[in-house]
């Protein structure tokens, strides 16, 4: 190649390279600007504002620096600050602070990765409010997560630099996973990981999990796997007395792992040795046990609690006053065992009792533990957003989530609240649907009683005896409301739930023909309760299902207990739409089972409603006895095999649905003044409630 030609090629190549560099530079600048625009909404997480003079911090009266134990939501929170947002709870996130003294000495720690993740989650959430003047809560710009990383008085001074602190810290949310007595939080809300019953301000503070960053990379194996060991006990940093107690309890038990620091590896977190000297990887070893013992008082026990949930190991908690994380909304009884500290010696024996903790119950508790970890505790983002949801529920009644929303994994076998019921049903009255067979005397007595109920609009009698005719028209009671008699072609209990055209109201009162013991006030009160809960089954006779660890089956129980999981439809209100669903949606296998056995149509309706709504049935009034005075002991309930057959119904229905949708509760609904002896009878709206 000639020299002149070579120079031209080189010049062209140089120009091409220069243009390429310029193009790449332009793309880089453009991308950087775009990325900067996207990250600007994250409140400049990489920018640190420096406060250089501590002495210039706002003056705070010394009397207000102490942690106020008497604070509550009513006394130490400015609710009027929260009325400017129509979308619920709003949170302003302060810029990050790094406090130094006059000599330039750093007084506050640099923000941890966990604190930055927490801030970022809030800023990206629906709770974030960029305008400080419109916010309900304030998140300070100082990292207060760990007591080990800061000096309490210095942090208190740094907090006082926030303009919104206003000398008391009201409406400020402080995340402090290891609560420090040196940190003067005044009236601020403490989202703490070490709350105690004696100092926990129940309506103001929030108990949160102490998230363990050391297990961030751990991946849990399948929670359905069976576990070869009964329990694992993390004894690292435990006292000699605690170790001795567990060595004694686990004597001659090969299915209990007592885990401690391996010799010469005191600084290694991810390795432990059992009582036999065998080395294990931590927290992986917890996956071999069904229960993980968590002893309050042992350093790091809060992290051990979270490690247990992360590995789907049921926490066996030994504590007298520890406030469980998110215990305000999470049902810890479903995925943990809580014992007093004094029960430490027999703790292993308690969970080893197969009559209390059989394989099925352990499996359910482990799955629930995994669900709770994955949904609420898997990251600092989850912890932060769950904390804000809980506090929002305290402030805004229309944003309160039901029990099942917090505690139930979403199953493909049912949908939550598919019916768009209003919060209260219109006061259009109700239709009484009576299933009658041959007890004419009690039927007529009940009709006369119903006629006095103010909200009754009509009565529909289902004559369920095809072998005989109903009474002549002239024999029926003369009442103001219309009576419609419908003759069934076959004697089926499910006839009571058919969506008859004669039913013109949303509310249906399902009755047996021998329910004559109720009072007018009780029926009217039950209807008003149903209007407030139109998606529920609301009624009088209650029953409960119990798990029998010996037979390993769910059983029907009619004894008087503190629990309710079913309302019998012999005296209960339900929405007429459920009648249509009973005919069209209820599994055909269940309908055939009910018709063939002439039993359990009421249990089937309870299953149907609970499966659709995940809501418990509501019992109203204290009445327990529902025996018809003077009626002969006939019918299916008089059979000695009645309880066994109904237990078989629950077992069969659960198998068809693939799970048991019934919800057990420990409350009933009564009028406010019905047991107030000092209130005059005339002042009570339902004075005849509770009269037996």
Automatic annotation (TrEMBL):
Gene Ontology molecular function: glycosyltransferase activity
The yes or no answer to whether the keyword Membrane is present is yes
Recorded hits in InterPro entries, A to Z, give: Exostosin, Exostosin_GT47, GT64_dom, Nucleotide-diphossugar_trans
Where it sits in the cell: the answer is: Endoplasmic reticulum membrane
Annotated signal sequence is 1-26
Q: What are the recorded Gene Ontology BP terms?
A: heparan sulfate proteoglycan biosynthetic process
**Predominant location category:** endoplasmic reticulum
* Keywords, sorted A to Z: Disulfide bond, Endoplasmic reticulum, Membrane, Signal, Transferase, Transmembrane, Transmembrane helix
Which residues does the UniProt record annotate as the domain Exostosin GT47?
A: 86-351
UniProt domain Glycosyl transferase: residue ranges? 430-674
Alphabetical list of SUPFAM superfamilies matching this protein: Nucleotide-diphospho-sugar transferases (SSF53448)
As for membrane topology, the entry says:
Single-pass type II membrane protein
Extract one GO cellular component term from the record: endoplasmic reticulum membrane
Q: Which family does it belong to?
A: Belongs to the glycosyltransferase 47 family.
Record's protein name = Exostosin-2
From the broadest rank down, the organism's phylogenetic lineage runs: Eukaryota, Metazoa, Ecdysozoa, Nematoda, Chromadorea
């Amino acid at each position: 190649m000639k020299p002149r030609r070579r120079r031209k090629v080189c010049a062209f190549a140089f120009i091409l390279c220069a243009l390429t560099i310029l193009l790449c530079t332009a793309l880089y600048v453009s991308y950087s600007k775009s990325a900067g625009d996207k990250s600007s909404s994250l409140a400049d997480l990489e920018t640190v504002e420096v406060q250089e003079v501590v002495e210039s911090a706002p003056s705070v009266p010394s009397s207000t620096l102490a942690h106020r134990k008497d604070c509550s939501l009513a006394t130490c929170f400015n609710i009027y600050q929260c009325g400017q947002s129509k979308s619920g709870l709003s949170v302003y996130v302060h810029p990050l602070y790094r406090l130094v003294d006059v000599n330039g000495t750093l007084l506050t720690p640099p923000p941890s990765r966990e604190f930055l993740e927490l801030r970022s989650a809030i800023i990206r959430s629906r709770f974030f409010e960029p305008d400080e003047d419109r916010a309900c809560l304030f998140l300070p710009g100082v990292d207060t997560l760990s007591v080990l990383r800061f000096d309490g008085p210095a942090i208190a001074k740094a907090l006082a630099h926030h303009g919104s602190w206003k000398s008391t810290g009201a409406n400020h949310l402080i995340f402090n996973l290891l609560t420090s007595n040196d940190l003067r939080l005044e009236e601020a809300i403490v989202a703490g990981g070490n709350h105690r019953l004696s100092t926990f301000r129940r309506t103001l503070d929030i108990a949160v999990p102490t998230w363990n960053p050391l297990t961030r990379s751990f991946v849990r194996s399948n929670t359905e796997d069976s576990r070869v060991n009964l329990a694992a006990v993390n004894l690292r940093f435990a006292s000699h007395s605690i170790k001795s107690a567990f060595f004694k309890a686990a004597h001659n038990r090969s299915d209990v792992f007592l885990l401690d620091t391996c010799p010469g590896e005191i600084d290694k977190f991810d390795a432990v040795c059992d009582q036999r000297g065998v080395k294990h990887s931590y927290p992986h070893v917890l996956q071999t046990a069904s229960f993980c013992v968590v002893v309050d008082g042992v350093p790091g026990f809060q992290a051990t609690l979270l490690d247990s949930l992360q590995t789907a190991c049921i926490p066996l908690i030994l504590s007298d006053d520890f406030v469980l994380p998110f215990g305000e909304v999470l049902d810890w009884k479903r995925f943990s065992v809580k014992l007093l500290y004094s029960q430490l010696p027999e703790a292993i024996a308690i969970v080893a009792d197969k009559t209390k903790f059989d394989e099925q119950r352990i499996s359910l508790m482990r799955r629930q533990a995994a669900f709770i970890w994955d949904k609420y505790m898997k990251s600092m983002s989850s912890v932060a957003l769950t904390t804000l949801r809980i506090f929002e529920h305290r402030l805004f009644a229309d944003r309160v989530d039901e029990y099942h929303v917090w505690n139930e994994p979403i199953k493909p076998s049912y949908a939550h609240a598919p019916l768009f019921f209003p919060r209260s049903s219109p006061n259009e009255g109700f239709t009484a649907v009576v299933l009658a067979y041959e007890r004419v005397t009690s039927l007529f007595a009940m009709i006369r009683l119903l006629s006095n109920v103010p909200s009754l609009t009509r009565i529909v009698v289902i004559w369920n005896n095809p072998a005989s005719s109903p009474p002549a028209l002239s024999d029926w009671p003369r009442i103001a409301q219309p009576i419609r008699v419908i003759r069934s072609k076959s004697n089926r209990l499910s006839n009571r739930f058919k969506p008859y055209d004669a039913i013109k109201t949303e509310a249906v009162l399902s009755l047996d023909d021998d329910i004559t013991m109720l009072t007018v006030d009780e029926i009217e009160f039950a209807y008003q309760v149903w209007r407030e809960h139109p998606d529920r089954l609301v009624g009088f006779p209650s029953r409960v299902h119990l798990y029998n660890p010996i037979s390993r089956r769910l059983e029907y129980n009619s004894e008087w207990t503190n629990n309710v999981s079913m309302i019998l439809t012999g005296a209960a209100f339900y929405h007429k739409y459920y009648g249509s669903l009973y005919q069209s949606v209820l599994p055909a296998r269940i309908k055939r089972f009910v018709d063939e056995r002439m039993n359990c149509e009421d249990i089937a309706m309870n299953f149907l409603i609970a499966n659709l709504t995940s809501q418990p049935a509501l019992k109203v009034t204290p009445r327990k006895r529902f025996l018809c005075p003077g009626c002969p002991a006939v019918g299916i309930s008089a059979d000695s095999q009645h309880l066994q057959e109904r237990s078989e119904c629950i077992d069969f229905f659960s198998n068809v649905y693939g799970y048991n949708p019934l919800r057990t509760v420990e409350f009933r609904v009564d009028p406010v003044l019905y047991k107030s002896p000092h209130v005059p009878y005339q002042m009570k709206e339902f004075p005849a409630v509770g009269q037996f």
